[in-house]
Amino acid sequence: MTSAPSSPTAPRAPEDASKTFFGQPRGLANLFSVELWERFSFYGMQGIVLLYMYFEVAEGGLAIDRAVAAGIVGAYGGSVYLFSVLGGWVADRLLGPERTMLGSGVLIMAGHTSLALLPGAWGLATGLILIAVGSGGLKATITNLVGALYARGDTRRDAGFSIFYMGINIGGLLGPLLTGLVFQRFGFHLGFGLAAVGMAIGLAQYLWARRSLPEHVHRVPDPLPREHYPRYLGLAGLAVVVVVVAVLTGLLTAENLSSVVVGAIVVAAVVLFVVLLTSRHLDGDERSRVWSFIPMFVASTAFWALFQQQFTVITIYSDTRLDRVVEGVPLLGTWEVPIPWVQSFNPVFIILLAPVFAALWQRLGDRQPAAPVKFGLGTALMGAAFLVFLPMVGVEGVPVLWVALVMLVATAGELMLSPVGLSLTTKLAPKAFPVLMIALFYLSVALGTALSGFLAAFYSEENEAAYFGILGAVTIGVGVLLLVLSRPITRLMRGVR
After folding, report:
1. In CA terms, which of 92, 392, 435, 474 is 20 to 30 Å from 136?
2. Collapsing DSSP states into helix, strand and coil, what is residue 60?
3. Cα Rg for the chain, rounded, in angstroms?
């Protein structure tokens, strides 16, 4: 990897902490554990929340229309990443990355607790809002904290992010497994309660080991002058009023929520790109690097629009199209696999394959493919995963393992794009906006996630061939186009690979 100029937000790790966690800086162990428990709670809740919305009241659910419920899940998921912009701004201008991450964790735990204890639609809305705001803040800041452990020219960076990403997926594996089992045996609210306990464990261990982080992450990179506080407080209040009025007047409804969130994310992304590209704080190289990220933003959006359907369309598919009954289980006899367990295929494959990819990038060093090539391959693989659904069109009782095959292909694409994207944004980030650049990457995830809910409204068993075939082919096309453009994009990155 070609070295890039170092920045205040990416100092070289001290020598005594450089090889204490799988050859990585010591602070990675703490952040690895925090993210593991946060993902346990997040994916544990995510595994059952769609079912909670559209299951009948007699089954413990809210009896919301299935398409509407899928749209809400997509909108909520998109909002999580949209709020990463807010979290990035708070970290850069008000609290600093470390304190922002800690406060965000508290909000997440409060959200899961609300889902566990508060009944009905109000409990659902309160919980999802708190989790969305908290997760957005945590996502933007924890990625920055991982990036702060490395110098920009440190070839361990991609490997370190891959290890960090493995921690994410250990939590993503255990969360749906345990909350799905608890939900099946004891109901939805105890499942949500288990997610709250997981977040509490993550916060406790972080407080115990937070001193392992570099000193500069406790500082505010670009403090907001105090005389500007009233202006921003007024804007925040106005935003809340606008949302409340939109809900009360019927302009914002459950039915159009996914469309509204998609539009809001598009506007936010455009504004953020304009802010970065026109800022007087950027030099020529930094501005060129921001331009280079635009086509990768588009590819990332296409990738996540399909990948995040594991929480919308694939959850519905698992409930209605899979044969989940297992005969001859010891002590149980005939047993039905919990629906959320299907969501654990992806983290299992991540856990198995992430060390392989991490070792590959570390071994290749400067000879590894440039980021645009990795992005293009990852996007094309995600499109190919959707084409794997096609042989099962019209088949009654699809084998559970067929979804495992779909997720294996999707996971290979994910490992080419997602941890690389996290690493890339820390390298492309301008000195003046270290966290907002990461937030921009998460906006691509936000847009794709919101689209996953929007697109779910077009899915039905009757149109499976067209649905999976068209989306798969279009996404493959986006990936191929990025591969074709990889050399000029790499030149725009000005020494970053």
Report:
1. 474
2. coil
3. 22
- Alpha-carbon distance of 165 to 169, in angstroms, equals 6
- Contact indicator for 385, 409 with CB cutoff of 8 Å: yes
**Alpha carbon of 93 to those of 7, 226, 232, 240: distances in Å?**
18, 11, 11, 21
* CATH number of the domain within which 296 lies: 1.20.1250.20
CA distances from 89 to 95, 145, 478 (A): 9, 15, 31
User: In the chain, what is the greatest distance between 2 CA atoms, to the nearest angstrom?
Assistant: 70
Cβ atoms within 10 A of the Cβ of 240, count? 10
Choose among 22, 126, 92, 20: nearest CA to 440: 92
Q: How far apart are CA 298 and CA 62, in angstroms?
A: 35
The closest alpha carbon to 162, from 382, 362, 343, belongs to 362
Domains held by the chain: number: 1
Angle between helices 371-387 and 464-484 (to 10 degrees): 160
How far, rounded to the nearest angstrom, does the alpha carbon of residue 105 sit from its chain's CA centroid? 15
d(C-alpha 160, C-alpha 415), whole Å: 13
How is residue 36 written in tokens?
């593991």
Here the tokens at position 139 are 């996502």
Residue 13 in domain: no
CA 309 to chain centre: 13
**Whole-number Å distance between alpha carbons of 94 and 108:** 20
Residue 15 lies in a domain: no
CB of 492 within 8 A of CB of 485?
no
Using N-to-C axis directions, what is the helix angle for 188-209 and 157-186, rounded to 10°? 150
Task: Give residue for tokens 């909002």.
Answer: 79
CB neighbourhood size of 87 (10 A): 32
3 part of a folded domain = no
pLDDT digits (tens, 9 = 90+) for 284-297: 888 888 898 899 99
Structure confidence by residue, pLDDT tens digits, 222-272: 788 888 888 888 988 998 899 889 988 888 888 899 899 999 899 988 988
